[in-house]
Amino acid sequence: MTNTALITGASAGIGREFARYHAAKGGDLIITARRGDALNALKAELEAAHGISVTTIAQDLSSADHAKTLYTALNGAHIDVLINNAGFGGHGKFIERDLAADLDMIDLNINALVTLCHLIGNEMVKHGSGKILNVSSTASYMPGPLQATYFATKAFVSSFSQAIAEELKGTGVTVTALEPGAVATEFFETANLTGTKLGADSASADAVAKIGYNAMLAGKLTIINDPKLRFALGWLMPYMPRKMKLKMVRDMQEKS
Ligand SMILES: NC(=O)c1ccc[n+]([C@@H]2O[C@H](COP(=O)([O-])OP(=O)(O)OC[C@H]3O[C@@H](n4cnc5c(N)ncnc54)[C@H](OP(=O)(O)O)[C@@H]3O)[C@@H](O)[C@H]2O)c1
Fold first, then answer.
1. Which CATH superfamily groups domain 5-253?
2. Can you tell me the mean pLDDT for 97-122?
3. pTM for this prediction
4. Which among 130, 135, 152, 245 would be 20 to 30 A from 217, CA to CA?
5. Any bridge partners for residue 232, and if so which?
């Protein structure tokens, strides 16, 4: 296999678009998610269109152990590009939400990502090259009342990614955090966010995937897809009083 990318959450949304973009550039793929039928459909599409090789691994990743099982299933395959994209959110007051759902969210959004960064990152360092792209969110910049756990998982992803990017300097391995604003995918339905103000002005999954992938190729530390959001989060939000920020985010996530 040449220039092989392992992409989690490739059965839909942004992950499927990462796979399409990587394949269009001639790279082979190992794609994973729970829905094996969607992965197989994508494999057929990309092998026919680009003459590349796609391996599918249908696997639930909502535990660090499941991530280790995925790693074992790779059977020593060399990974040039790791895209930790799988993730989900969940609307509601933390205290009223199903605890198991929030713990699964932490397992997928954080534990699986950390596990794969560690296992595959070690191999990349030994090899002297590799690119890691971790999908975070603009949610990483603030606490998120009515999605408290989700926002906190993404704060972890952005913090962790930047810290290991610094540690890995000089090894040939780069780490980039993609921090998208709203993207038109199944995410909103899965997270029970329909009827909120979030998602009113969504970017397309394929545009966001290309921006993230290109930032990864350039070895950038972080990338926000939308310049307006980049300005607001970099230059306005840091100066807003905390309580005002909390109320603003809560209002955006209230159902009308
Ligand atoms: N959409 C947005 O507005 C937005 C904004 C910022 C950041 N993000 C982030 O972007 C990433 C991709 O989300 P998306 O918008 O493309 O959402 P999506 O369309 O819902 O796709 C989520 C992907 O994750 C996989 N997944 C979900 N639960 C899983 C599990 N337990 N084990 C393994 N795979 C699992 C899904 O596949 P299966 O269901 O087949 O397992 C699917 O392929 C996520 O990390 C999300 O937090 C999204």
1. NAD(P)-binding Rossmann-like Domain (3.40.50.720)
2. 97
3. 0.98
4. 152
5. none
